[in-house]
Structure formats: structure tokens, C-alpha cells
Amino acid sequence: MTEKQDYRDTVFLPATSFPMRGDLPKKEPAMLARWERMGLWERLRAASRERRKFILHDGPPYANGNIHIGTALNKILKDVVNRAAQMGGADAEYIPGWDCHGLPIEWKIEENYRAKGQDKDAVPILQLRAECRAYAAHWMGVQEQEFRRLGVLGDWAHRYATMDFPSEAAIAAEIGRFLMNGELFRGLRPVMWSPVEKTALAEAEIEYHDHTSTTIWVRFPVVTPTVPELAGAAVVIWTTTPWTMPGNRAIACGPDFDYAVLRVDGVKEGSLARPGEVLVLAQPLVEQTCEATGITAHTVLHVLKGAAIAGTVCAHPLRGRGYDHDVTVFPADFVTTDAGTGFVHIAPGHGEEDFELGRTHGIEVPETVGDDGTFNAWVPLFAGLHVYKAADPVCAAMTEAGGLLARGSIVHPYPHSWRSKKPLIFRATPQWFIRMDGAGEIRTKALAAIAGTHFVPEKGRTRLSSMVAARPDWCISRQRAWGVPIAVFVEKKTGQVLRDQAVVDRIVAAFREEGADSWYASPPERFLGPGRDPAEYEQVRDIVDVWFESGSTHAFTLEARKLPWPADLYLEGSDQHRGWFHSSLLESVGTRGRAPFKAVLTHGFVLDEQGRKMSKSLGNVVAPQQVWDKYGSDILRLWVMMSDTAEDLRIGPEILKQQAELYRRLRNTLRWILGSLDGFTPAEHLPEAEMPELERWVLHRLTELDARLREAVRTHDWTGVYPAIHSFCATDLSAFYFDIRKDALYCDRPDTVRRRAARTVLDHLHRCLSTWLAPVLAFTAEEAWVARFGEDTSVHLQDFFEVPARWRDEALAARWAGIRDIRRVVTGALERARAEGTIGASLQAAPALHLNAEQAALLTAAEWAELAIVSDLTLTTAPAPESAFRLPELPDVAVAFAPAEGEKCARCWRVLPEVGQQPKHPALCRRCADAVESGLVCRAAAE
User: Fold this and answer.
1) Binding site for Zn(2+): residue ranges?
2) Which pLDDT score, from 0 to 100, does residue 429 have?
3) φ and ψ at 706, to 5 degrees?
4) Which residues are registered as beta bridge partners of 214?
5) Known binding-site positions for L-isoleucyl-5'-AMP
6) Residue 4 predicted with pLDDT over 60
């Protein structure tokens, strides 16, 4: 080779087709198309046929509108878990699904009718159901494309949907199981009712908003006292629901509380209290009540225990106006003295505790309110009045009758419909229930199943347990049209539900062939079969709660497809403890005796950068569609896994910029590795036993990260895994190992042990990082894999790189932790010299490193120079000068700066005295002259 002064062609600078810019918005769609062409999903299934199945059962999103950022979070997390399980050695068969029935879709179709001035109740039910089906199908298609754009890999060709005919048949069969095992029954119970939507709502469909309620203090005159002290007195109740007064049938008191029998001696002007009247209320609430009712002076005549008052009979405050029934005082443990008067008015049709107290004492449950929230025609004084507008008329009527003592208002959290945003009411209606404490012992078995389930985070166990322990019987009926009907018959003569497996089987068979529409399109004799007169039976038209439907998905998604049951994992937001986790558990325990899942993982909600809930009015909504258009889906995926998903996540413009920067560092790490592996062949591989310590330390770090990743695959707890991998790339590799080994990789002869060791480690790093990052950076990891191994392969067809256990070396790790601490002192001294303008680059330095004897034995001076990236270094145990650089936490280490002596090598840029002494290459140091003379580095010239 002819000697030249320009040695650039002899340096092994990184070369790769993997570009610095990700350009993800353009590349990702092309990669999705490539995966489709190569049949990636099918190839994975074929290659994994003999492996253990891993089943993450998809909690179905609702087919109503574009996906939002919370939906994206959920699906990304599921995809990461599935991909990691697959690369961890399992066969991760993921079947995405949709929830298609229910109120939101029906409400949307009804809105269209209302906009056209049509009466929705006049629309034939099959027409309404067909329009709902078409609406759901449209949004399923839209959402599927959006999920695919996020990079979610699944069996999209065989997705499930609750409105598919086989699904509707399976749901009907599950209802049939409860029918036949005796746990399904119809009963009168108070349920959360939406007067706007005219249906009962599930707990998961309820949200709480501040609401201003009218409060009233009401007299109930004593008719039959239990003790003489109550003669002529009036029991005072307080309530925030004046509209429930027509339904009052009793009063509750605390048996152990002290109650004052007081005489009113003075009142404020305008007060409805009357001087001389005698009132009864809890003693701790006397002052508070007097203040609220305008009583300025009073005398306590007697103090009685609640137990003495129990049994007292009072008159309704509207007696003589259609409310002439007796109102008895009963003891109850739910009464408190936190607010009010210590007496609770009991309307058995409008409260859970009211209902239970009424049932205990045989009190009638009047149905005062109709489906639309108006008082029924038989209700005296208020027939036809809507409960939302009842406060003024009720107060006026009670004022006229002398029953109202005072009126006020309170702002408090109140249940609202999540769809209409309107207040709800408790209303006793005939509904279909599943017994929690019947012969099937659903509650007991559910609590046992929770105890045997793995929760991530662990607090989910307590939350779900407390909900199951306290919940009433499961109300599964809804008074709507779009859904799977509770396909049962009731014998009109006896009121008994028909329990006949043959009838159930005929219903299920019809639904499987024609869908649930057949319940409305077919005559009842089709299902009842021969020998029964349809006129003797009521065909139930209520639909089943959508939470029962989604809770049944394990039956027709896993069991029907002969996939392993129970599922390995259910993964949803933390709100699903009262939703899908809850309903799935109860449905499965009630029909199969155990939970449909082995583990439950929950994630938080998505908030804006200030920690606020996202809303259009605040203008802080981050749409996933906008993010992937600007940054790419890999940035969203990285945001999910760099967050602590067990808590609420924040997102916004600044956070997305931060994620883009984190992504850039990871991408640059992959790019530098790929560039430095240019031309690498297996022949270069060097056994770890022959490697320098620095390389063996990197291999040890790989074992630590590999163990952490595999533990996450096993436990489903991904907290901190990818931040640790990012930190490894940024701190251990880019800022340390790569920085040190650039010199060897660029300038050493290819056959040197040091360069071969480094390139061997880089080969391992590429395989590890590409597979480790693949579950998260699905597109970028693929690009990095294809850039090295070609278009006919995919990183997603690989398993995680098998890191040999022999690479783990705790003693070496401890040793190098000390070495890196000492190195920090050297680099600190160099930074000070650079800041003072003494040097520009570290290779211009040749410092003296002062250590104690033990530290001095760690490495040679040449090795320290290599680690510190200086041209030379003096290692000494002599005392350091006062001017030497030190760090407070390392008092035994000091560095005295000195400039490097000699000339700068034109090839490696080290400053050495030997530069100028090589006859053929006077501009080079000995190492570089040898490398050039060897002829092994002249690739560019040869080309």
C-alpha cells in the first residue's frame, strides 16, 4: 500500500444502512404491510405449535367511536405482554374482541330517530337492532385498523364479538346455566335507575358528579308512643331526596343512640318551627338541627335510648291527603349521627338499606315511580310529576299539611349515568338477579378464587375482594332492545320461571343459526316445544346486562375454540375491578366454580401533563391518531413502557418530546452497534474466557437485565424494566463502554483480541437489545434486525437471546463498580481542565492517578489510560498534591492533571512521544503503523 498522510480510509468507522432518523410515520405503515405479506402471525403460530400456550384474554373494548389514548395504553400494554411471552418461549395466541351490545349504541341510534322527529318506541325492534348491529360493525372495522396501526399483533381474522351469532348463543347458554342451577330468579329490588334511558344501570355504568340537592327536615307526628315521654311529640327526619317522601313507609333509629325530647321555646322570624311543639331527634345533633331549622331556644324534656323509641307508630306528614298509613320506627345499625337528625326516613322502594329493612319487617314496597321517572297514576298529589321536579311540590304540600320543619340545599357527589350524564334514582322494580349467597355459594367461591389469583399490583386483590364481599345479588336485567335477551319463560299462573334444559337447548340452537333476533322474530312455541300452551307463559323481553355478556367471553373465546382455560392473564384498567374483572369472576364462579383467570394486571388512567382528566372543554385531549401521525406508534409504545403503568400515566406535548428523545438514544445505540458490526462474521467470535474484563463486565450486565426481563414475563410486573434497559444503553453503553472501545474498534487490527472481543460483545448486544426492545419498539427493532440479517427474516420470529448463566460474575461486577467510581474522579479532573481551557479533548491529557495500595492493584496504568480515554496516565500510591482533583465521596482517590507529551497520531489522535519515530509512517503511533502495515485495515483503499 502506498503511504499517504490521509489515513481515513484505514479507520473502521461505523457503516450501516440503519439511518439516524426514525421517520416512523412513514416507515411503520410499510412495515405493517410487510408483516401482512410475509404472514407473520401465521408463521408465528406454525413455529410455536409445540409450545405451551400463553393466553391473555382480551377484555373487549366498546365498538363505539375512535379509540382514545386510554384504549391505546391498554392495547399497547397487552401487545407488549403477548410479544414478550412469545419471545420468552410460549405460544402467545391473542384473540382480540369487541363488546357490541348495550345502551351507548342503542342511545346513539335513538338520537338519530329523535333528530328526525321519530318516536323511537314506534320503531320495530328488529329494525332498531339491525341499525345497532350495523353501527357496531362499522366501528369495529375502524378500531381494528387503529389497533393494527399501533402495531398490535393478533388473530384479527378470527376476532370475537359479542354480537356474533355463536357469541349470542353462548351468552344465552350461560344464562341457561344459571337458570338450571337455580341461581337465576326474578325479584323486586331497588336498583340504580336512569329515568332518561328508562333502564337499570350496572355499577360500572355509574359515575359521580357534584349535584345540588334539596334537603328537608320533616315532622312525623307520634300516634302510638312506646313510652309516655313521646306522647304529643313529632319525630324529625332529614333527607336529601324529597321526591322519596310519597314512598315513605317507616323510620329507622339507632338503638344505642341518645335521643332528646325537646320543647321549642323560641324561633327566628320565618322559621316553620312552632313555639311549644315537642320534637324528637338525636342528642348529638340538637344544636346543628336547631340552627338549620331556625329554633333559637329549646328545653330538653327527656333523653331516651333509641331502643325505647323503637316500635313507636307515627303518622305520615301528609296524613289526610292520601297518605293515611302508619309509619313505625324500627331499629337499624346503618343509622349514624354524622349528619341529619339521627332518624332515617325509610322508603323501601328507593334504597338498598330501606328495602332490606322493609323486607325484615314485612313492610310493603310501593312502586311510586314509573320507568320514565314520573310518579305513577295512583300516587296521591303527585301523579305524573317527574322526580327531578318534585322538590318544590313536595315541600309545598308538606308545608300546607304542617309536616315541613325546614328546607335547605347541599352540594354532594351524586350518581349519574355515564351516558346521559343525568342524575339517577334508586327504584324498586322487578328485575332478574343471580343469587350471591344461594346454594351455589357464589360469593364464598369468588372470594376464594380471588385469594388464589396473582394480582399486579397486589392492591388489586384487596379492592376486588372488598367489592365482592359487600355487593348485593347481581342484577343482570336491562329494559332495552339492543343485546342478548334473558331468554326465559315465566308461568303466568304460578309466577315460576320455567326450568327446562330442552327449552334452553332450543333457544341456544336458534341463536347459533339466526342470532338473538330469533327471540323476537319467532313464535314462542318454537322454543317452548310441543305440549305447552304459549298463552300460559310470559316470554321475558329484558336484555341481559352487557357486563354479563363480557363476563361470559371466556366461554366462547377460550372454551369454544379449545384454548387453555382459565386464561393466564386478564389485563385492564383499574376501574375494571368493578367491571369486567368482577363480572367475569362472578359469571365463571357461578357456572364453573372457579375464576376464568390465573392472574390479573391493572393499569392506571391517562391524565394530562398537569395531572388533570382529559376533556374537550380543557383542550388537553391527546389523540393516539395525532401522535402516530407526528411521531409514530413506537413513541406511544415507548411512553407506555417507560411509565409506571400501575399508577395513573401523564401525557402531553412535553412528555411526548421527552419520549422522542429517549427513543433517539435507543435508536442511536442500535445504530452504533450495527455500524460497528459492519462486516462481522462468526469467525471473529471470541470465547468469553479470552476476553478482557471490560467485555466480561458487559456480559455480566446482560445477565442482570435478562433476568429482570424474564422475571417480568413470568410475573407480568413490567414496572421499571424498560427504564432499566434505557439506562443501560445510555449510561453503561453509550457513555461508558462504547466511548472506551471506539478507539479499539476504529483503529485496532481486526485480528487483535481486544477488537474481536468488542465485536463479539456487540454481536451479543445486538441480538439482546433487538429482541428485548421488540415487544415495545416493534417497528424499530424490526428495522434494526432486518438491517443486519436481511428482508427475509423478522425479529418477531426470534426468541429472547439465550444469555448463558456462566456470564454472570458478581465478584467482577463489584470490582468494576469500584473501578467506575475511580474513573469518575479522573473524568471529573478532565472536565475541570476542559472548562478552564487547558485541553480540548481528553486525549490531550496524561494525568497522575493517586490511589491507595488496594485500589492501585485493580488495573495497570495503561488500562486506566484506556478507561479514562487519555493518551497516558501515571499510577501512583504517593500522596497527592493539594491542588489535585477529588470527589468528597471518594477521599482516597485524587487526580493531578498533566498534559500529554509528544505529537498527535494522525490516525487514532492519541498524543504520544513515539509519534514521528515510525520510519514508514512518521505521523502514526506504533500501534497504528503496525495496523496500516498489516494490510488488514485498508478495506476502503482495496475497494
Assistant:
1) 905, 908, 925, 928
2) 79
3) -60, -40
4) 409
5) 572
6) no
